[in-house]
Design a protein that fits this description.
Elements (H helix, E strand, L loop, with lengths): L1 H19 L4 E11 L6 H11 L9 E7 L2 E4 L5 E2 L2 E2 L3 H4 L6 E2 L7 E5 L3 E10 L30
Parallel strand pairs: 1-2
Antiparallel strand pairs: 1-8, 3-4, 3-7, 5-6
Helix pairs in contact: 1-2
The site of zinc ion has 8 residues, from loops.
């Protein structure tokens, strides 16, 4: 399933990212930039995400999409901006349409509109409210010192 592999790709990259940049808390929302030209079912990819993320530090998180408009650059006239769709409307939903320069009609390079990438995370701090969060198995740093009495030094 198409959405499954997309979700898997996102997840793999994020898990790797979290390995090197751990967050302090539970990831609630994963904000994803989705190019206009990326054809997917948001429901399907969210469902895939729920299943795939279960055994990862991202379990319980949700995907939130921000759609990125298509931007193209023309090689012949150096136009830079929105594109003109050549494909008929029905085909638009089925596959990547051919795009042409609105100013000169030449074929264009797609600058934006094809990406699918996680850009940020919303994290619930563990210290914040909520019923005692599950203690994760992240033994980083020394355990917080008990507020013991300071050694009485000196006389
Ligand atoms: Zn052009």
């Amino acid at each position: 399933m198409h959405e499954y592999s997309l979700a898997y790709g996102l997840l793999e990259a994020l898990v790797e990212h979290l390995r090197t940049h751990p967050v302090d808390g539970m990831v609630r929302t994963v904000h994803v930039r989705k190019g206009e030209l990326v054809i997917l079912s948001e429901e399907a990819i969210k469902e895939a995400w729920r299943i795939l993320s279960e055994d990862t530090p991202l379990r319980g998180s949700e995907l939130a999409f921000e759609v990125v408009r298509t931007r193209v650059r023309c090689r012949s006239c150096s136009y830079d901006g929105a594109a003109e769709r050549l494909a008929p409307e029905e085909a638009w939903h089925m596959n990547i349409p051919s795009l042409a320069c609105p100013s000169c009609g030449a074929r264009v390079d797609i600058v934006e509109g094809k990406e699918l990438a996680a850009v940020s995370l919303s994290v619930d701090e563990l210290s914040e409210c909520g019923p005692s969060p599950p203690t994760s198995d992240a033994p980083k740093g020394a355990p917080a010192r008990e507020a013991g009495r300071p050694e009485a030094q000196g006389r």
